[in-house]
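Person: I keep going back and forth on a fold encoding question. Show me how you would write down a chain together with its backbone fold. Please set it down just below, with no commentary around it:
Helper:
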Amino acid sequence: MPEAFVPLTDFVNKSKSIPRDHPLDKPVAKWIEEEILDGEVVEAGVVILRTRGCYWSIKEGCSMCGYFNDTVPGGVSDDMLREQWRKVRPILKGKKYAKIYTSGSFIDPTEVPFDFADEVMSDMSDMGIEKVLIESLPEFVTPKNFAYTNSPKLEIAIGLESSSPVVLDKSVNKRLRWPHFVKVCKLARDNGAEVKAYILLKPPYLSEKEGIEDAVQSAIDAAPHVDKISINPVNVQKNTVVEKLWFRNEWTAPWLWSVVEVLQKCEDLPVRVYSDPTGGGTRRGAHNCHDCNKKVLEALKNHRLGLGELKGLHCNCKSRWKALVNQSKLRRNGSEPHGYRSGFTGGRHF
């Protein structure tokens, strides 16, 4: 870690800048995407409900997370949550898989009241949905918080981010400790839920090489305790520490080649490891050059769905990526020269 870095406490009160005109009766977003269920590619309905948001984001927040921008710190009433649910039900009809996000923890009863969550789970079960993915911080993964009356198979996604305590504390500003993560994974699985771990690729203050090594080691550490692992390349979200570093040219989003490298190094792990980069191919997300972004992202999608491998990918920019990785110790942590990725010169910020 560098001796001087952006104090994470700079963003403790960031929620004060959040607009107050979010419509409380409408979800943040909804869409359909492909996912794997029991080895079969199916359509999944994805929903982001608008809530108060993550309690940790309100208290301090993680360095890379800008989901608080879509939340309402004052909270959303049960009536408005039910109105949001009424609007999203149509996109879930006929689906076997659902993903219900809240920009926080679905099983935090102070964010999503248990009675409402119980109604939602029962409704999805009645609609024929077989599995539902929800997200939570580990502190809320207790049986009473997901002891629903009637629900599809539960998959709980937990943001491990890294198995390194130094990276968690200094790069991410997260208080999770490894023994607690292991404990809640066992607790969830013992109570019938599957566990998905989110692992970050290249959080702040790590070089490209360090980011790759940390993601691989974290996946190796997590594999015995979870059912699947998602490698999440850090992207530049608004009003975050990461964005501030990015504007100061002290950090750049990881390369898609780094994503491929991590996945290839995790091929022999006993669980499914994949990546679906948010903002992939843009300056704010994991990217290579314009010539290969689309090709590599398509390969990552096929790999995620079990429809293809990551071997044989090539582009002229790969040599620049290799040079950057090899020179990581000689460069400022997390940054790289302007125009290093061909096709991304000029007009960097938007």
In short: The chain has two domains: 8-151, 163-191+199-343. Confidence is low (pLDDT under 50) at residues 1-6, 11-16, 345-350. The first strand starts at residue 29 and ends at 37. DSSP finds ten helices and eight strands in the chain.
